[in-house]
């Protein structure tokens, strides 16, 4: 046993020097990140609590300098691209404004493993630490990455599970025929006591006016400008109406009391990318889901008119009531509007001429015609129409009473819908059978492709039937408007825009005449 003497030297401790050295250590610049994923009341409280807690916690530590609270409210955590607060915090950290970041948990930071690890690695390389309080992880710890990978994978799986549960709930709701509307920016409805859409009378009148103006021949741009001029607020509460908003109202099936669910779908739970549903996932059409503001016939007529106008976009750039109604008798092109001497009140003149006049090598030589002459000749034609008014009205009423063709067309379309549903069920059965048991894949593929072809053909047939039905409904509605307008028309002394829109189908300009075709099919030639 070695009992040799051993001496250990204890160096003197300069307490004062140590205190001076400690006082020279710069404070850590500390920030916190808070996030909640929805804007519900309970989540809002959680968000405010996080902000309040971290503000007090950081300021209470004398070794820390409070930088601020970076927060995202009502934002998903599965993707960092849309999180402005988060991205601003990372940018400030990289700029040297932050040394330490505090956050409640990995799931608050990100539910995406890749994003979490990538961000932490970038910050760690700059000696910037992140502390996840719930998991007790400090990112500058050597054991951090293993724990972080495990924990963030669990958070990602939790996000996937939540997404699946939400999707299942939405699917079930759709299958049950339940609907919901974005009431804060949806004109005409509010949420009723039973949870279903309830009509707001004063807003419903605006919707009906929009449909009426459109069927009266107003362009979508004119309707938007009219509503703006009258100081009517948009669905989103803005002062100026856009063409896209009017178009959306005119084509939204919810105004006729139906609802098409799943018009869009989320590609995956991480990116949250939303795409238009062009048949990639199921859609659910709920008929009579709530009270209608627009009757079905009027709605269908508007759809037919939207389709008709879509073929005349260049002609409809002009907001005039004569657009798409004045036709060239030589080449069949539309007539366009031109203002002569536009800066002179005395000599200003509006003239209509064939749009083919200045196109290509073979220019159309059809005559131009002034707007005042169009109105004058129209009144002459109207006077002739009124001379046989009662017989025209009686004839049109008899045509409306005969609904056989429309009824047969609707029945044929409904049968086509049933056949399509049967085909869809059969192809699903084929797919499920292939998943359950082993079979010749070449035969399976041939069988599958045959069903796909049949489904495509059936869809095309349904589209044709639907177009024919809309066309017939449109013709009937035009006749109805023609009858009502003709009944109320007393004389042909003053030009009235609404009468023109409801009575005239088109006017064909020829060298020596202007031929008016009325909506009941009657043609009246006026010599010019």
Provide a brief overview of the structure.
The chain is an alpha/beta fold.
Report on the structure:
- The chain has 528 residues and is α/β, with parallel strands linked by helices.
- The chain has three domains: 15-162, Resolvase, N-terminal catalytic domain (Rossmann fold, 3-Layer(aba) Sandwich), CATH 3.40.50; 183-311, Hect, E3 ligase catalytic domain fold (Alpha-Beta Complex); 393-527.
- It has helices at residues 15-23, 41-59, 84-94, 106-109, 113-125, 144-175, 201-215, 220-229, 243-251, 296-310, 371-386, 389-401, 404-436, 441-488, 497-503, and strands spanning 28-36, 64-73, 100-103, 129-132, 137-138, 189-191, 197-199, 259-261, 264-266, 274-276, 284-286, 326-328, 335-340, 349-354, 369-370, 504-509, 513-518, 523-527.
- It has a five-stranded mixed sheet with strand order 2-1-3-4-5, with helices on both faces.
- 24% of the residues are buried.
- The model is unreliable at 13-23, 38-43 and 267-271 (pLDDT under 50).
- It comes from Dorea acetigenes.
- Keywords: Coiled coil.
- Residues 406-468 form a coiled coil.
What percentage of amino acids are in beta strands?
15-25%
Strand order of the largest sheet: 2-1-3-4-5
Counted by DSSP, the helix tally is 15
Give the terminus-to-terminus CA distance. Answer: 137 Å
Structural class computed from helices and strand pairing? alpha/beta
Q: Describe the biggest sheet?
A: 5 strands, mixed
Contiguous low-pLDDT stretches (5 residues minimum) are 13-23, 38-43, 267-271
Quick one: overall form?
elongated
CATH top level of the largest domain is Alpha Beta
Going by CATH, the homologous superfamily of the largest domain would be: Resolvase, N-terminal catalytic domain
CATH topology name of the largest domain: Rossmann fold
Helix content: 40-55%
Radius of gyration: 36 Å
Q: How many strand elements?
A: 18
């Amino acid at each position: 046993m070695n009992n040799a003497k051993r001496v250990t030297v204890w160096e003197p401790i300069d307490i004062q020097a140590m205190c001076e050295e400690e006082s020279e250590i710069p404070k850590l610049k500390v920030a916190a990140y808070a996030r909640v994923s929805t804007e519900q009341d309970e989540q809002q409280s959680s968000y405010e609590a996080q902000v309040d807690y971290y503000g007090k916690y950081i300021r209470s530590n004398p070794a820390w300098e409070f930088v601020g609270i970076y927060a995202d409210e009502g934002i998903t955590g599965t993707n960092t691209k849309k999180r402005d607060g988060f991205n601003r915090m990372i940018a400030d950290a990289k700029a040297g404004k932050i040394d330490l970041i505090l956050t409640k948990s990995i799931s608050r930071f990100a539910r995406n493993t890749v994003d979490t690890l990538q961000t932490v690695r970038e910050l760690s390389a700059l000696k910037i630490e992140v502390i996840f309080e719930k998991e007790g992880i400090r990112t500058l710890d050597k054991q951090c990455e293993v724990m972080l990978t495990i924990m963030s994978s669990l958070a990602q799986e939790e996000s996937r599970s939540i997404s699946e549960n939400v999707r299942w709930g939405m699917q079930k709701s759709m299958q049950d025929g339940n609907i919901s509307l974005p009431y804060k920016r949806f004109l005409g409805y509010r949420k009723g006591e039973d949870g279903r859409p309830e009509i707001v009378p004063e807003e419903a009148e605006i919707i009906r006016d929009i449909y009426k103006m459109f069927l009266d021949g107003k362009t979508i741009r004119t309707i938007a400008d009219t509503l703006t001029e009258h100081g009517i607020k948009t669905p989103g509460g803005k002062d100026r109406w856009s063409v896209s908003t009017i178009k959306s109202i005119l084509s939204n099936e919810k105004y006729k009391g139906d609802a098409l669910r799943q018009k869009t779908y989320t590609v995956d739970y991480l990116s949250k990318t939303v795409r238009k549903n062009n048949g990639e996932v199921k859609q659910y059409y709920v008929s009579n889901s709530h009270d209608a503001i627009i009757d079905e016939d009027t709605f269908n007529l508007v759809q037919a008119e939207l389709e008709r106008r879509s073929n005349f976009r260049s002609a409809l750039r002009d907001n005039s009531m004569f657009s798409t109604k004045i036709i060239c008798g030589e080449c069949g092109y539309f007539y366009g509007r031109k203002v002569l001497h536009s800066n002179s009140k005395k000599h200003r003149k509006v003239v209509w001429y064939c749009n083919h006049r200045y196109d290509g090598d073979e220019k159309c030589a059809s005559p131009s015609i002034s707007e005042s002459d169009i109105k004058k000749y129209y009144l002459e034609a109207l006077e002739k129409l009124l001379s046989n008014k009662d017989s025209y009205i009686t004839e049109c009423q008899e045509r409306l009473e005969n609904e056989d063709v429309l009824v047969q067309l609707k029945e044929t379309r409904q049968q086509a819908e049933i056949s399509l549903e049967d085909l869809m069920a059969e192809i699903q059965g084929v797919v499920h059978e292939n998943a359950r048991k082993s079979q010749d894949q070449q035969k399976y593929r041939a069988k599958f492709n045959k069903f796909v072809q049949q489904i495509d053909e059936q869809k095309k047939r349904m589209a044709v039937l639907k177009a024919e039905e809309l066309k017939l409904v449109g013709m009937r509605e035009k006749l109805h408007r023609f009858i009502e307008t003709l009944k109320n028309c007393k004389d042909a002394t003053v030009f009235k825009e609404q009468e023109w829109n409801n009575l005239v189908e088109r006017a064909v300009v020829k060298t020596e005449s202007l031929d008016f075709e009325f909506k009941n099919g009657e043609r009246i030639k006026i010599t010019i």
